[in-house]
Write a structure and sequence with these properties.
Largest sheet: 7 strands, mixed
Distance between the termini: 11 Å
Number of strands: 15
Structural class: alpha/beta
Helix content: 25-40%
Radius of gyration: 20 Å
Strand content: 25-35%
Shape: globular
Length: 336
């Protein structure tokens, strides 16, 4: 079978195609023929780490979907031909997060990912692809969609009448926008592109702020919300955005901390959170249980992921390059 491995060259030169032996499922395992995978910002960080001499031989990417190809003994919940997606954390099935689950993240420091023609996983690590979605769409869900769902809905309690602020128009941001609109919440989107803001408006965003034209976007958020601020904020940027997020959050609001798009740096001043009785919710994707609940919501509301572009297996380096350029709107997908 074909797969990509990471090797220690800088940039996309680290992505090397390889022919490897097709794995066989053991007891309690399922083999999936991967039909599509998708990229996340995390995959750029992983690629950079590979360029520093780490992760040699690792199969990248956490997100993928396909069809059950074979099942091991004692597997009764899956059958050949079932459409499935793999959960980001192989071992986080349900319940509270435990630090030990970090090692079970696909395509990371310890576990191979899904940029491969076939993969064997525990039967417990899979979810059914909603009937209304293509496999290409389903491949976008395991990281970005589950992260937005877990942070905003499961733990953030987002509901009708709330106001959500999302930063940018990448995968997590757009899933958050779509969930909020389906729930009846108002959505504020900040972006450097008026064209992307127009597309966000078409998806249901009602307050649009170009942060290049309005660098003090926190002031604009407060003005647009009559001084109330946003009840929920998807904090995706990191050091360059965090202080403004704190100044944008409503009394009793929630900042869902997810991203480090601007890197790692100085810590923000958290004093305002105390006086506004606001919370920070740290989120690292979610469990299989979260994934399954989100899929039921997607089906109920007929929500389709926003796919920016689809690349062939031979064009994986170009897919990475496109994601790093930051011009995408939604998810970048690889068709196997």
């Amino acid at each position: 079978m074909k797969a990509y491995h990471l090797h220690g060259d800088a940039g996309v030169g680290s992505l090397v195609r390889a022919d490897v032996t097709k794995p066989e499922p053991a007891k309690g395992e399922v083999r999936i023929r991967i039909e599509a995978a998708s990229l996340n910002y995390r995959d750029l960080l992983t690629l950079d780490s590979a360029g520093q001499g780490h992760l040699n031989g690792r199969v990248p990417l956490s997100d993928g979907a396909g069809v059950v190809d074979a099942v091991g003994s004692d597997v009764t919940q899956w059958h050949v031909g079932d459409r499935v997606a793999a959960s980001f954390f192989r071992d986080w099935i349900s319940g509270s997060f435990k630090s030990g689950y970090v090692a079970s993240a696909h395509g990371g420091r310890t576990l191979d990912g899904l940029l491969t023609e076939y993969i064997v996983l525990p039967a417990t690590a899979l979810v059914t692809v909603p009937e209304h979605l293509s496999v290409m769409e389903a491949a976008t869900l395991p990281c970005a969609a589950v992260t937005a769902w877990h942070g905003l809905v499961t733990r953030g309690g987002l509901r009708k009448g709330d106001t959500l602020l999302v930063q940018g128009t990448g995968g997590v941001a757009l899933f958050g926008l779509q969930f909020a609109v389906a729930l009846g919440a108002r959505v504020v989107v900040i972006s450097s592109s008026n064209a992307k803001l127009d597309r966000a408006k078409a998806l249901g965003a009602s307050i649009l702020i170009n942060y290049r034209d309005t660098p003090d976007w926190d002031v604009a958020v407060m003005k647009a919300t009559d001084g109330q601020g946003a009840s929920h904020i998807l904090e995706l940027g990191g050091p360059a955005t965090y202080d403004r997020s704190i100044r944008s959050v409503a009394s009793g609001g929630k900042i869902v901390q997810i991203g480090v798009l601007t890197g790692f740096g100085p810590k923000p001043d958290l004093a305002r959170l105390q006086w506004e009785n606001a919370d920070i919710i740290g989120v690292a994707v979610g469990s299989v249980e979260h994934f399954a609940a989100m899929n039921r919501f997607l089906a109920e509301h007929a929500i389709h992921p926003i796919v920016d572009s689809i690349y062939g297996f031979d064009d994986v380096p170009e897919a990475y390059t496109h994601l790093r350029a930051g011009s995408h709107f939604g998810k970048v997908v690889v068709k196997l």
